[in-house]
């Protein structure tokens, strides 16, 4: 059995990790980490876990946790994981960090977009960006995984096949993205109150959102060119889900059939990326509660642009599901273990 600890188990991403790991036959959760609910029953925080989780919440103590578990998930705010990780910790356990601390290779870029000082830049180079579909082999031997961001996962997987094929102008990419409010976390904020969010939709972080450099970096690796994108996220009145509609200029003439063949080839062996039939647009409701990303592509001959679409559950493939996918790779398990639950509907 793999012994797991979750720092931040009482957040939205953390509680989703608990739900997924409880259904994983090779994992036992040993540590339900919290800041606000120390010594309280986990099931008193999340009543859906009544009679399923008898454990109490514990404070964050990575040095002690290292002695008790094989893998630690940090589902905590930006800056916490980088303030805890050390050579001693990494010599004892695998760390899967759901925050952005180790996603961006250039520390100045991280500090500029996140507005905080990085606490352990010495581990950035070694950290592996945990996008399993692209970095599978590197992930298997890693000690420290930077679990990708939610918007970046959906944006990148929607665009990746054409970026890799060199068919789009990497300075023309526009990503229009929408997220349910669980993406903003469980902490109380006026902007996320029911009356502020319900029956409304708004853009936010326009031209300044911190996921912009993460998406650009990964698209640059995939295409071998410098990617410069416009990324505009929107908050929509639903609990879960991310929808991406991305646009780019084609750099050469191509048919819709050729575009579709590129996607088919890119994703034919990927269990969690579903390339939809022609004409079907991804919808968040068809992936909710699952680790699937649905993608599709459409050629607009009139404008000589391509439209790339994706839908995914921000808490599953965008956070906890992807973290478990990474854990499976780290421990030599089938990548899909514990993750094949079908989407829920309605
Ligand atoms: N929500 C999402 O869709 C996604 C989130 N992520 C990332 O996952 C991480 C968690 O996000 P999310 O679950 O939304 O956030 P939440 O605000 O819902 O949860 C934050 C968690 O971190 C704990 N925490 C906060 N400060 C500390 C601290 N100083 N020491 C120990 N624990 C602390 C909180 O504990 P307590 O509740 O007990 O105070 C809580 O369990 C973030 O880095 C986020 O960027 C990544 C992808 C998607
Ligand atoms: C709706 C909403 O507010 N979403 C969050 C992104 C989700 C998140 O937690 O960020 P990471 O994926 O980088 O971890 C935001 O825009 O800041």
Number of strands: 14
Number of domains as seen in the coordinates: 2
- Unreliable stretches (pLDDT < 50, length at least 5) are none
Number of helices: 12
SSE ordering: EHEHEHEHHEHEHEHEHEHEEHEEEH
CATH class of the largest domain: Alpha Beta
Q: Given the C-alpha coordinates, what overall shape results?
A: globular
User: For the report, how would you describe the main beta sheet?
Assistant: 7 strands, parallel
Looking at CATH, the homologous superfamily of the largest domain is Dihydrodipicolinate Reductase, domain 2
Average of the residue pLDDT scores: 97
CATH topology of the largest domain: Dihydrodipicolinate Reductase, domain 2
The molecules bound to the chains, other than polymers, are:
NADPH dihydro-nicotinamide-adenine-dinucleotide phosphate, N-acetyl-L-glutamyl 5-phosphate
Overall helicity: 25-40%
Lateral arrangement of strands in the main beta sheet: 3-2-1-4-5-7-6
| Helix-strand category | alpha/beta
Distance between the termini: 34 Å
CATH architecture of the largest domain: 2-Layer Sandwich
Rg, rounded, reads: 20 Å
What amount of the residues lies in strands?
15-25%
Domain Semialdehyde dehydrogenase NAD-binding: 3-142
Enzyme class: oxidoreductase
Keywords: Amino-acid biosynthesis, Arginine biosynthesis, Cytoplasm, NADP, Oxidoreductase
GO molecular function: N-acetyl-gamma-glutamyl-phosphate reductase activity; NAD binding; NADP+ binding
């Amino acid at each position: 059995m793999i012994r797991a600890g979750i720092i931040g188990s009482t957040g939205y991403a953390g509680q989703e990790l608990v739900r997924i790991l409880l259904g994983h036959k090779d994992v036992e959760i040993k540590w339900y980490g919290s800041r606000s609910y120390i010594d309280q029953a986990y099931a008193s925080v999340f009543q859906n876990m009544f009679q399923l989780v008898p454990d109490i919440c514990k404070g964050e103590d990575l040095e002690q946790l290292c002695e008790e578990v094989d893998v630690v998930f940090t589902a905590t705010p930006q800056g916490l994981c980088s303030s805890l990780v050390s050579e001693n910790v990494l010599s004892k356990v695998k760390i899967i960090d759901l925050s952005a601390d180790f996603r961006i290779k250039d520390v100045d870029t991280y500090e500029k977009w996140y507005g905080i000082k990085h606490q352990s830049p010495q581990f950035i180079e070694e950290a592996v960006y945990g996008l399993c579909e692209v970095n599978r082999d590197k992930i298997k031997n890693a000690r420290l995984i930077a679990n990708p961001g939610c918007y970046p996962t959906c944006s990148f997987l929607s665009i990746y096949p054409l970026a890799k094929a060199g068919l789009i102008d990497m300075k023309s990419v526009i990503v229009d993205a929408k997220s349910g409010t669980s993406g903003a976390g469980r902490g109380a904020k006026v902007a996320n109150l029911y009356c502020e969010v319900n029956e409304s939709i708004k853009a936010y972080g326009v031209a300044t959102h911190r996921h912009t450099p993460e998406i650009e970096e990964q698209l640059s690796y995939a295409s071998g060119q410098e990617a410069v994108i416009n990324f505009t996220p929107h908050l929509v009145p639903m609990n879960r889900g991310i929808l991406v509609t991305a646009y780019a200029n084609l750099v050469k003439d191509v048919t819709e059939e050729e575009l579709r063949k590129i996607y088919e080839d890119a994703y034919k062996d990927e269990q969690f990326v579903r390339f939809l039939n022609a004409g079907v647009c991804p919808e968040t409701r068809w992936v909710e509660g699952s680790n699937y990303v649905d993608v599709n592509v459409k050629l607009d001959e009139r404008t000589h642009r391509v439209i790339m679409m994706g839908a995914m559950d921000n808490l599953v493939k965008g956070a906890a599901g992807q973290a478990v996918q990474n854990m499976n790779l780290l421990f030599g398990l089938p990548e899909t273990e514990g993750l094949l639950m079908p989407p829920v509907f309605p």
